[in-house]
C-alpha cells in the first residue's frame, strides 16, 4: 500500500478559481475510482495558498494503472486538466509508505504537517522513535510515512499538535512544520 501526497501552490486569485473547479469537476470524475481520497488541506501564507490532498493506492503499479485510466476520461482531459493547469503555480508529488495504520476519520483532525528531513540513512531510526512516542500516548499522531519519492531521507507526520514529536538520533535533523486547514472529504 502507498499514499500519494499531492501539493499544489496557487496565488489567492488562482485558488479562488481552482477550488470550485476541483469540487465541481475533479471530485465527481475521480470519486474513489482512481485512488481513494484520504484527506484534503489548505495552507495560506501571505498571498499564496498550498493545497494538499492524500490519495491511497494498493501499489505503485496500481497507481500507474489507475492514472492511465483517468487520462482516458474525456471530461478529465478536456474539462478539468486545461482549466486546472492554468491556475497552478507549482506542483509537488510525494510517494509515501504508511508506517502507522491510518484511520480516515483521524485524518479529519489533522492540523499540522511535520516533515523530518533526516541525514542519509536515518529515516528508519526517526520512524522508530516516533512509533515509540505514539505507543506511549504522549503525542497525537494521525499519520506517519516514510517517503519513497521524492526524498527517501524524509519522514512525514500528520497530527493534531503544533509540536513535532521529539526524536533523539544523535544526528542533525531538520523539522519543518506547516499549519493546515482541513477541507471536507466528500463521502459517497
Task: Give a description of the structure.
By secondary structure, the protein is of the alpha+beta class. It folds into two domains: 95 residues, Alpha-Beta Plaits (2-Layer Sandwich), CATH 3.30.70.100; 85 residues, Alpha-Beta Plaits (2-Layer Sandwich), CATH 3.30.70. It is built from five helices and nine strands. It has a nine-stranded antiparallel beta sheet with strand order 8-5-7-6-4-1-3-2-9. β2 and β3 form a beta hairpin. It is globular and about 50 Å long. The protein starts with a strand and ends in a 5-residue tail after the last strand. 28% of the residues are buried.
Low-confidence stretches: none
Q: What fold name goes in the CATH topology slot of the largest domain?
A: Alpha-Beta Plaits
Order of helices and strands: EHEEHHEHEHEEEE
Strand content: 35-45%
CATH 2nd-level architecture of the largest domain: 2-Layer Sandwich
C-alpha Rg (nearest Å):
17 Å
Strand order of the largest sheet: 8-5-7-6-4-1-3-2-9
Amino acid at each position: 500500500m502507498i499514499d500519494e501526497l499531492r501539493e499544489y501552490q496557487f496565488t489567492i486569485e488562482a485558488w479562488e478559481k481552482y477550488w470550485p473547479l476541483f469540487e465541481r469537476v475533479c471530485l465527481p470524475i475521480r470519486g474513489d475510482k482512481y485512488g481513494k481520497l484520504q484527506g484534503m488541506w489548505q495552507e495560506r501564507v501571505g498571498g499564496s495558498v498550498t493545497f494538499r490532498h492524500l490519495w491511497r493506492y494498493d501499489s505503485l503499479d496500481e497507481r500507474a494503472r489507475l492514472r492511465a485510466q483517468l487520462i482516458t476520461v474525456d471530461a478529465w482531459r478536456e474539462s478539468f486538466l486545461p482549466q486546472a493547469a492554468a491556475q497552478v503555480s507549482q506542483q509537488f508529488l510525494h510517494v509515501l509508505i504508511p508506517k502507522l495504520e491510518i484511520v480516515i476519520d483521524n485524518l479529519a483532525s489533522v492540523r499540522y504537517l511535520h516533515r523530518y528531513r533526516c541525514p542519509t540513512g536515518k529515516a528508519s531510526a526517526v520512524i522508530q522513535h516516533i512509533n515509540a512516542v505514539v505507543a506511549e500516548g504522549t503525542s497525537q499522531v494521525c499519520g506517519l510515512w516514510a517517503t519513497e519519492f521524492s526524498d527517501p531521507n524524509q519522514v512525514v507526520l500528520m497530527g493534531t499538535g503544533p509540536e513535532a514529536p521529539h526524536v533523539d538520533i544523535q544526528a542533525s535533523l531538520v523539522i519543518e512544520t506547516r499549519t493546515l486547514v482541513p477541507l471536507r472529504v466528500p463521502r459517497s
